[in-house]
Amino acid sequence: MPDKPKWIRWQKPIQRVLYALIPIVLSSVYFFGWRVLLMLLLVNAAGYLAEYAFTRKWGTPVTSAVLVTNTLFCLSLPPALPIWMAILGIVFAVVFGKMVFGGFGKNIFNPALTGRAFLYISFGGFMTGRWSAPVPGVPGGLTAYAADAITTATPGIVLKTDPSAVSLSGLFLGNTAGCIGGTSAILVLLGGIYITWTRAANYRIVISCLAGYLVMQGTLWLSGVSGAADPVRAAFSGSLLIGAFFYATDPVSASQTNEGRWVYGAFIGAMSCIISIFAAWPAGTMFAILLANMFAPIMDLGIGELKARKKARLAA
User: Fold this and answer.
1) Using the 8-state DSSP alphabet, how is residue 245 labeled?
2) First and final CA of the chain: distance in angstroms?
């Protein structure tokens, strides 16, 4: 009789990403209360079971990558989102963003952002108009189940109308309204540097993404385009940092060639800026990454063809 598959197959790079996310998760509890931890646990359970429903039939273990998908998906949500919506979103993310393509290593789009896009389209009011202000006071959310104050204004929204009203220190530390895991720029940067240093994330994508954003944002800001804030404040105010380090660098849905990774990252950064300024959405990183996912295979094929032609010319 064959051995039963293990409940999960751990992968070293995936473990490093999870380590990097621990401080971000802890800070989200401090800012928004213990409800976000409950949401994270339930989302992880639902996401694991959704993948297990497929791998059980295949006789293979669930990969630890699903834990990263679950956690990143949850961290991208508003703190006050109904938990049943979060569970519905992660099941959609795992099933339709990953397993229908054949499981780990075969998905075209980032699964976490696939689930978030599904919620964004299906429950737009909850995803864009019900944000939580951080729990006030020194103990913060450590003594609260959830944040009481609800606001429709996140830094990304305020930047379009009054950039001076957005505090850089608040963006840096994280005591501001926003998605569960994207408010503290310092913790996202530290976690992102760790996974880049340990090669769990590709530095080419990160550098080109940030550079593409800063160049595009700086150009529009200096040109006096309405709604374009200064590049540093804009980069800290939304989902760009966590998107560049943790979502865009997904090794499966990103470009697979080094040359392609530079182009892929720059495209995400530039498009994130353009969508944020000219579209109705305050942050365009999610859509920019999903668009880049769509073009990444074609980009790699084109780069491979150019390399083959160059090699053939040199050999001739």
Assistant:
1) I
2) 57
pLDDT surpassing 50 at residue 257: yes
Name 151's bridge partners: 131
pLDDT in tens, 72-86: 999 999 999 999 999
Enter the tokens of residue 274: 């353009």
Domains and their CATH numbers in the chain: 12-304 (1.10.3430)
Map tokens 């896009």 to a residue: 117
Give just the sign of the alpha carbon dihedral 118, 120, 125, 131: positive
Spatial CA neighbour of 178 closest among 118, 130, 245: 130
- Give one DSSP letter per residue of 47-72, joined into a string: HHHHHHHHHHHHT-PPBTHHHHHHHH
Cα Rg, the chain, nearest whole Å: 20
Residue 81 tokens read as 């989102």
pLDDT tens track for 55-64: 988 888 999 9
Rounded CA-CA distance 314/282 in Å is: 49
- SS3 (DSSP) at 135: coil
Cα–Cα distance measured from residue 53 to residue 41, given in angstroms and rounded to the nearest whole number: 18
| CA-closest candidate to residue 155, choices 81, 229, 218, 211 | 229
- CA dist., res. 195 & res. 200, Å (int): 5
> CB-side exposure of 158: number of CA atoms within 13 Å?
19
Residue 167 DSSP SS3: coil
Dist CA 39 CA 170 (whole Å): 25
Q: What is the four-CA torsion angle of 90, 189, 245, 238, rounded to 10 degrees? A: 60
pTM over 0.70: yes
14 and 72 in contact (C-beta within 8 Å)? no
